[in-house]
Amino acid sequence: MSGAASATDGDFADLVAELRSRFASAADKPDETVESTAAALWFKAADEPRAVSRARPPVPALSIAQQGTLRELVARRLSGEPLAYLTGLQEFLGLEFFAAPGALIPRRETELVGRACLAVLQELSAGGAPLCVLDLCTGCGNLAIAMALQAPQARVYATDLEAAALAVAARNLERHGLSSRVQLRQGDLFGALRAPGDAEADAGLRFSLIACNPPYLATRHATHMPVAVAGSEPVAAFDGGPFGLSIVLRLIREAPAHLPPGGWLCFEIGAGQQPIVDSRVAQNAGYTEIHRIRDEQGVVRAYQLRWDGAAGTGITP
Known about the structure:
Blueprint: H1 9-22, H2 34-45, H3 64-78, H4 83-87, E1 89-92, E2 95-98, H5 111-125, E3 131-136, H6 142-150, E4 154-160, H7 163-175, E5 182-186, E6 209-212, H8 219-222, H9 227-230, H10 246-254, E7 263-268, H11 274-282, E8 287-294, E9 300-307, E10 315-316
Parallel strand pairs: 3-4, 3-6, 4-5, 6-7, 8-10
Antiparallel strand pairs: 1-2, 7-9, 8-9
Helix pairs in contact: 1-2, 2-3, 5-6
């Protein structure tokens, strides 16, 4: 970096070249190209933080002190610290969220289940009737907040096992003006609705839509991830048990007790898990409408399941 009082376009080009020689983009974070990473770090150093998806040249001039900050940020990123934790922000479904250690960083792939949830809510909201919505494994609250904004009449609950994740979610609720509309609960899946205190009354609630971005990696993979993930993001947000499906299969089994006829369950799965999920769903005839959501490669990565509690199952391709 230049020692001048302000950094120039040439300095930014030098940073891009440096990162290109030392940095590899992650497949699960396609927004983090070499150029966008350089821009996101630069804006953070300039005290103008933004999510990487919103960081692009032209970049502002940097003071000498800010150039030093940039060098520190670059070193931390190259050592494996997640970019979203460095900038403090991540975009999801066009919304910007606080990102911090303790909560999973929202992935672009999770927008598949996010859009599936919003489509369900659009249909359910058409009549204007009150809705009750539940987001399990909420993490930083990104999915719960997107749903709350989509359906202003909805009463939204968001649960997570980890207190640290809920702390980040609370910050995001405040950021989006939803602290009074989205109720946070700590606990294991639906067990969070049976927590002591004022949540006791929530145990009998029925939800028009239950959403979940569950952990779906096998334990052996979740505990041996790259340092950029395993060294920073909470392992519990990835560990789905011995085969990666422990939480997904619990969702399919336990959700009916919390869904009224016509209610929906939407969740994400890992690549290659479709055959087992299809088999388990087919064993429960109460799911009468089943949609499989595919990514750009044609791989099923999310499900929409309608619960009617009646016989008959139809699976759409």
